[in-house]
Write a structure and sequence with these properties.
The structure holds 2 protein chains of 2 kinds. By secondary structure, chain A is an alpha+beta fold. Chain A is built from 12 helices and 23 strands. Chain A has helices at 7-10, 12-20, 37-47, 53-66, 83-88, 118-126, 143-154, 174-188, 224-230, 235-239, 409-412, 444-463; strands at 23-30, 95-100, 104-110, 130-136, 159-165, 195-200, 243-245, 248-250, 258-265, 267-268, 273-277, 281-290, 293-294, 298-299, 303-308, 319-322, 328-339, 350-355, 358-371, 378-379, 389-402, 413-417, 424-430. Chain A starts with 6 loop residues before the first helix and ends with a helix. In chain B, helix 7 (207-217) runs antiparallel to helix 8. The chains are: A alpha+beta, B alpha/beta.
Chain lengths: 466, 318
């Protein structure tokens, strides 16, 4: 199989066009310790010819020193980068890897399997289109497998490849493979995946990773790489309503005022009616400015500068959205937190919340329930410790525009920052708020008034009569 | 600049790619621009580290796009070890003039006075004094609290785990255990007094992406990237270009003209050339795809022992 066709084969122009027009797929690999994640990624890199001769030489040297595969080259060492990791023989942080074929470019988030690194996996999953969940064919589904599947579903990943690894060690048993798939489907039924694609493979030998395996004639599906080349990319984000958080107001002179940002979802064109949240003021898109000229339209994933038809107030922190689908404007959030800090979280704590391009003070008014990381079931909790997943209520010091995370990952996700250490303390997902009053018909002035009073009244509720 | 004119096919491709399906280059470009705008909005005094190489050329091009039609809201800074290729310095000065850039050039004067150089002191000492220490001096002198760099995660193992926004202590040290999660497109740019950020907008680009983008956007780059006969000597398996008289020749050693190009650029005695006839961007891209060695293979400093880059980063090297 030719991974990259040579330029001579069909001419430079077509060759360049093909490579310049490829899409990118982001995926995350997850699995338990020793399921062979690093070996799988090493195999993908190796078999798509991303590994260079000098790296192979270094690999041979390192395999003798640190390898776990005896005399053979240990492909995992391609991925386990930090010296600290090599010495301990484990992966301790999320690493990003890149490879490409004629069809697509790939960005892989390789995340560790240890329980204490939930935040890294959540980080890797937050931008992934697909999750590749590894299972050791001999071990079957473990506690970690369940945790990882739950985690990627919580982070909004809809498509999963179940890579049943080390099939060579169970004699490529079809029965074993089907048993594992059935168990996984059973467990994953409530997790909302739209696709589960199971692939029997051996990362160590390379069967069904890039090249089809010959050892299992009963398997008629494609190798993992072919699945990754074909799976849809960011279709949900493209179909969602238009949203763009304003990062920066571009005012080179008094004649030009543009709002710069990255389009989180949807599509926009001049003439579109928009709302500037959270103020709720309305306007129309006059121009979409890019460095090399105005654009006739722009879509999810593009960094643009928008010019509005009216001189209305907008600045960093504002969100420009389609008038057809306003955002929820609120100073109170129900959120699911992935607590990442080593310190405990207690009710009443104040942190900074960065939501899109706005940063506000947030008080944790209540910890409602902790989520069992294996079953997804809620349980009572008075405090949170590192790597806990929990549902909390946050009260903000001013109203912000949000979406539910389930509807939009970019406008529904946020981080909490510890005000003293300045570290990122938590990842947060905004939950759908069934109780929220519809804000569509509410005039802007009323909304601003409402949001002004909300925080103080809630502070009183938290601290008692201040 | 010897870049081929945009072919009709490539131009058509660009127009067609303005549909709803974004290409990986469009997504990479948008992500880099977003990172630059976030940094400018959230820090007080950012600077762009400009190394004159192809990655810096791409970084500069993206920055110009990010803030157009406005001007660049930050200066560029070049850490000049005084051992760069002559063509690099000429290119730097020409681009600064053409674009009206606010360019700071900093050299470690103390190191210069002590005569520190790659030939006399070896790559490790030279890099530490003239690059790492020089960078720290310059950042402190100008009180920059954020510095853009062109590093990519595909370059080297310890880079693969680097964050896009990397927190450095007041002593400019990198602590791999204190790096922050970066979910979605959210970057935590808060820092304590004295701490600073290194920001890598090209984190998710590969060498191939950089070349494809240079071709697509017709970005000017230093001519040393294109093959042509140049005087070189072979040392420890590396082809070193004799750029000036400061490179002492061994007895019996004579530079010979070989058709070479460079995949990365740095201090000339520390930068190996590759034999090549690729004199145009499409030819370079063809060679990049067919390459059997990584681009850092030409960098002498990466060979200062296992974990060399990880250690240099912890000490404050970019």
């Amino acid at each position: 199989m030719t991974i990259h066709q040579s330029p001579e084969a069909f001419g430079y122009d077509a060759f360049l066009a093909a490579h310049q027009n490829k899409e990118v797929l982001r995926f995350i690999t997850c699995g338990s310790v020793d399921d062979g994640k690093s070996t799988l990624i090493g195999r993908l890199l190796h078999d798509t010819k991303q590994i260079f001769d000098d790296q192979v030489t270094a690999l041979q040297r390192d395999s003798r020193k640190h390898g776990t595969q005896g005399a053979e080259i240990d492909l995992a060492l391609l991925v386990d980068g930090l010296q600290a990791e090599r010495e301990q023989g484990i992966t301790i942080d999320v690493a990003y890897r890149f490879f490409s074929t004629d069809k697509r470019s790939f960005i892989v988030a390789d995340t560790p399997g240890h329980e204490q690194y939930t935040r890294n996996m959540a980080t890797g999953a937050s931008t992934a289109d697909v999750a590749v969940i590894l299972v050791d064919a001999r071990q079957g589904l473990t506690r970690q497998t369940r945790r990882h599947a739950l985690l990627v579903s919580l982070l909004g990943i809809k498509r999963v490849a179940l890579a049943v690894n080390k099939m060579d060690l169970v004699g490529w048993s079809q029965t074993r493979f089907e048993e594992l798939l059935a168990a996984f489907k059973d467990f994953a039924a409530p997790l909302g995946f739209t696709e589960i694609r199971a692939i029997p493979l051996s990362a160590k030998n390379g069967d069904n990773v890039v090249l089809p395996g010959t050892a299992a004639p009963w398997y008629t599906g494609t190798p993992l790489l072919q699945y990754l080349e074909a799976v849809p990319v960011r279709v949900e984000e493209q179909a969602a309503p238009f949203r763009m958080a304003v990062q920066w107001v571009n005012r080179p002179n008094s004649d030009f005022r543009g709002f710069a940002g990255l389009i989180a979802s949807g599509r926009v064109a001049p003439g579109d009616a928009v709302i500037v949240e959270p103020s709720g003021r309305t306007s129309t898109i006059a121009r979409i400015v890019a460095a090399d000229g105005d654009l006739p339209h722009a879509v999810e994933g593009q960094s643009v500068t928008l010019v509005l038809a009216d001189e209305i107030d907008a600045s960093r922190g504002s969100v420009i959205v389609t008038a057809d689908a306003p955002m929820r404007v609120t100073d109170s959030l129900e959120a699911r937190l992935f607590w990442a800090a080593e310190t405990e979280l207690l009710p009443g704590a104040t942190l900074l919340a960065k939501i899109g391009t706005v940063t506000v003070n947030a008080v944790v008014t209540a910890i409602r329930t902790r989520i069992d990381p294996e079953t997804g079931n809620p349980e009572p909790a008075a405090r949170l410790t590192a790597n806990d997943i929990a549902d909390v209520t946050l009260t903000l010091d001013r109203a912000v525009a949000v979406d539910a995370y389930a509807a939009n990952r970019d406008t529904g996700g946020f981080i909490l920052i510890d005000r003293e250490t300045t570290d990122t303390a938590a990842l947060g997902l905004i939950q759908a708020d069934a109780a929220a009053a519809p804000v569509k018909e509410e005039p802007a002035a009323v909304r601003e008034k409402r949001s002004g009073g909300g925080f103080l009244s809630k502070l009183r509720w938290v601290f008692g009569g201040i | 600049m010897s870049a081929a004119p945009l072919t009709t096919q490539a131009a058509t491709t660009q127009a067609a790619s303005r549909s709803d399906r974004l290409t990986h280059l469009q997504r990479l470009e948008a992500e880099s621009i977003h990172i630059m705008r976030e940094t400018v909005a959230e820090t007080e005094n950012p600077v762009m580290l400009y190394s004159i190489g192809k990655d810096s050329s791409v970084l500069l091009h993206l920055a110009l796009k990010a803030f157009a039609p406005g001007r660049l809201p930050f200066p560029l800074m070049h850490i000049d070890t005084t051992w760069k290729f002559k063509e690099m310095i000429a290119f730097r000065d020409r681009r600064a003039k053409e674009l009206g850039l606010d360019l700071i050039v900093h050299t470690n004067q103390d190191g210069l006075a002590r005569g520190i150089g790659p030939v006399s002191h070896g790559s490790e000492v030279h890099t530490d004094v003239m690059k790492t220490q020089a960078l720290r001096q310059a950042l402190d002198k100008h009180r920059f609290d954020a510095a853009f760099g062109g590093a990519r995660r595909d370059e080297e193992a310890s880079r693969a785990k680097e964050r896009i926004v990397s927190l450095r202590t007041a002593q400019h040290r990198w602590d791999p255990k204190r790096q922050r999660a970066e979910p979605w497109h959210l970057y935590n740019m808060r820092k304590k007094r004295g701490e600073s950020l290194r920001v890598f907008p090209l984190s998710n680009w590969t060498e191939l992406d950089v070349w494809l983008y240079i071709e697509q956007e017709q970005i000017p780059i230093v001519p040393l990237y294109f093959a042509k006969p140049r005087p070189v000597v072979e040392r420890d398996g590396q082809l070193i270009m004799v750029d000036d008289e400061r490179l002492p020749l061994n007895p019996g050693e004579t530079p010979k003209d070989v058709s070479v190009r460079f995949r990365t650029l740095g201090d000339y005695p520390l930068t190996g050339a590759v034999e090549s006839d690729a004199a145009t961007l499409p030819e370079i891209i063809g060679e990049t795809l067919a390459a059997r060695t990584s681009e850092r293979q030409g960098r002498v400093i990466d060979k200062d022992g296992a974990g060399a880059m990880e250690r240099k980063k912890q000490e404050g090297y970019f």
